[in-house]
Amino acid sequence: MKISVCIPTYNQAAYVGLTIRSVMVQTLLPDEIIVSDDCSTDETWEILKKLATEIGIMSIIRQKSNKGLAGNTDDSLRAATGDYIVKLDSDDALFPDYIKTLSTLLTEHPQAGYAHAAVREIDHNGYAGEPRRLLRGAGFVTSENALKWALKGYRVAANILMFRREALEKAGYIQCRQDFAEDYFLSVCIAKAGYGNVYSPEILSAYRVWTDQGNVRKKRKLAEINGLNAVFNYALTPAFEQLSWDLKPVERAKQHFAITHSGCLSWDVYNQEEKRDLETAILQLSSTTATKFYIWSHKHGFGKVIELYQSSTATIKKYVKKLILTKPRTR
């Protein structure tokens, strides 16, 4: 069994070295580390060249032009030669037992296309925050259940995964070129190819969470909605059609996402032209009467009331989830 670790990066000079060194302290070392630099403009490239002279199993891809998140990640995954391939962002880190634990799970579950685990949030200074765990049992989920669960979103604690290369090949690697939801898209394609996934509730990695300074994340909302359109139109709907399943649950899920994201139409970070583009993308996701009602409400000043209700509901759900996850288990 050969194991690869792929680290796509762009302008992460402050963290990429820490990320790579977290791989080198694994209790089960990988056979290769592939770092793909997407034309960084900071000191990332110089740091990588220096580390490559120290770490014999490390190789670097230097993109000739900026390919974006999806394209750069896809290139790094395709370059890997391992039977199992870890995808690790260059500002995150693995804890020592990550590779050993998840490679064991993939070996035990040959129909799992990828393995994933709980994570510990860290901030930009590396200080530990809250744990992230999924509200599901440990172990294997079939491809059919994975597809059904995907209607509610990308079902991982964080996008730090160990893939089975065979599953990546059958899924066609990252076919989506949107820089939002490309990971969600890939997970659906893997399930569509007949692979489930396996989950460990053990915290095996650190996931860096950034504050939204300058409303950068808000300003990327159009890309996020376009990514969801790609997931539903080119991954989930074809998967349900392939299995001759009823498409009504897909349409309900699209409406849910459209309503949820319609709140951006009341944000003051957008001008009128940008709001028109957002509205068009939301309606492409779902054009039901309910969606149109929420769009109208946000455009006519009722957004604060809706956001308060949605925020309260989300807080209650988060509290209930935390209670369930922290409740002692009895035999």
Automatic annotation (TrEMBL):
Annotated organism of origin: Dyadobacter chenwenxiniae
Pfam families in alphabetical order: Glycos_transf_2
Domain of life of the source: Bacteria
Name this protein carries in UniProt: Glycosyltransferase
Residues covered by the Glycosyltransferase 2-like domain: 4-170
SUPFAM superfamilies, per the entry: Nucleotide-diphospho-sugar transferases
Stored InterPro entries: Glyco_trans_2-like (IPR001173), Glycosyltransf_2 (IPR050834), Nucleotide-diphossugar_trans (IPR029044)
